[in-house]
Amino acid sequence: MDEMAIRGYYRSMARPSPSLMSVPWTTELAGALEAAASAIARLDARVSASSVASAWALRAAWTGYSKALQLQGEEIDEIDVFSWATGVQLSGRPHRESLHDPFSAFVPWQRSLAATGHHWQEQLPFTPELEDGFAGAPALLRAFEVTRQFALADRSILPWLWLPVLLHRMGVTRSALPSVACGDKALRFGTVQQGPLALRLLRHLAKTADRSLKALEAIEADRRKAISAISGVHRPGELTSLAAGLLHHPVTSPERTAAGLRLTLSGAGKLLDRAAQLGLVQEVSGRRSWRVYVVPDVAVALGLVAAPRGRPRKALEPQGSSKDLNDIVSSFDRDMAEFDARYSFSSSVE
Length: 350
Prior knowledge:
- By secondary structure, the protein is mainly α.
- The protein folds into 2 domains: 3-214, no CATH class; 219-342, Arc Repressor Mutant, subunit A.
- Helix content is 56%, strand content 2%.
- It has 15 helices and 3 strands.
- The protein has helices spanning 3-13, 27-49, 53-71, 78-86, 106-114, 139-153, 158-161, 163-169, 186-189, 194-231, 239-248, 254-261, 265-277, 296-301, 322-342, and strands at 251-252, 282-283, 293-294.
- Helix 3 (53-71) crosses helix 4.
């Protein structure tokens, strides 16, 4: 049997989850729809206007891909995806099997996220069955209904990855939001009623969008913090380039830094020590392991360190003259632009 025939076989044999087009409306469901739509709109607006949108999109893709892997039944956590994507092995994390590559779909998915000018039905490996009233249904439910049919037609990871592509191509979002790759295993195997399933999907989408917005705000705060810290350093050297690179690759090591900035291993280690003293990174190396550094907010999010207690420290004011500060900001943004070009959606991951 060819690939399309196999997909058709799976679709015919699966116990179908209920269509979301005939969901019974309740006040609770309407509220969940409004909350999800508002959360997506807030995130989309901030991403579209943010100076760190490219860095956020890369990290968001790692987060979204980790959720898709878990929906696919893979025993892989978000921390493992960050480790794979940055090329830095974290202490205490299992090594991946060489016979199975769970990340083979990542780069093709990035290309789909970056593609423009496509109708939402393009690139789908099946023909959606559009019921009467589909066009007039709320956009989020239409996207979830296509995801439901996709999950029945294709048993790969692709259906779980496709929601942000659908939302972008349906015109719901201006930017592709890879972190909202989400779903529910009941879409593929469930026999639950439409109402509870739709309610669960919408609530999860709203929470995901809110967490993604906080992640974006953290990256923006990291940029401000780096500029403020570097403005008070007499000879920053490669600190500006390192800080700009950390926005895209928040997990690093002396080896990774040396290769990226063309430094000696010793020079990279000293540079990371300076960055740690300024609070730009935090060492999370385990005993008897290579030195590893992580941006503080990412270290907390991935469970590598405990969240700080008490009131957050007051942000440092930039030091130095306005001319010096402008030079630092310009240099920082130039380095960010270089990383944007290197690690954009269309770039491959080694």
